[in-house]
Amino acid sequence: MSAMPDVTETERMMRTYRTITVVGASRDPRKEAHAIPVQMQRHGWRIIPVNPYADVLFGENVYRTLADVPEPLGLVDVFRPSEDAAEIVRQAVDAGARAVWLQLGIVSARARAIAETAGIAYVEDRCLAIERARFELDAPR
């Protein structure tokens, strides 16, 4: 189990970024990787999905990789297994992301080290939707 991230860091990230790029966004509405982005979208966040097997999700164009996203990356949210996290964080850093959030159950010391070395904000093993509800937040304006 990872150390609990600083609550002020999770809240600060949610108050800072209006757009969330979701790696592993799912087409399947029964999966958390679909339901959570939809919930965040309902609360005003723009979702940019990254999935190599879809074309449109959540009313947005889907990109195959983080490198394919044609705009600056702020917060990158990850719905992939822990063993994939380090490579995804490396790709996020290379693509210029300013923050990475690994969803509940996703933990990686290597991913954390990559983020820390790059100087970007990092949260792991936390759910965006749970944190959004806890802080009673909507997307920043």
Shape, principal axes of CA atoms:
globular
Q: How many beta-strand runs? A: 7
The unreliable regions are: none
Main sheet strand line-up: 2-1-5-6-7
Distance between the termini: 34 Å
Give me the secondary-structure category.
alpha/beta
Which quaternary structure do these chains form? Answer: single chain
Cα gyration radius (Å): 14 Å
Please describe the biggest sheet, giving its number of strands, its sense, and whether it closes into a barrel. Answer: 5 strands, parallel
Proportion of residues in helical segments? 25-40%
| β-strand amount | 15-25%
Structure overview:
The protein has 141 residues and is of the alpha/beta class. Helices cover 37% and strands 18% of the residues. It contains five helices and seven strands. The protein has helices at 7-16, 32-42, 82-94, 109-118, 128-135, and strands at 19-23, 46-50, 56-57, 60-61, 75-78, 99-102, 121-123. A hairpin with a 2-residue loop joins strand 3 and strand 4. Helix 3 (82-94) packs parallel to helix 4. It is globular, with a radius of gyration of 14 Å. The model has no long low-confidence stretch (mean pLDDT 94).
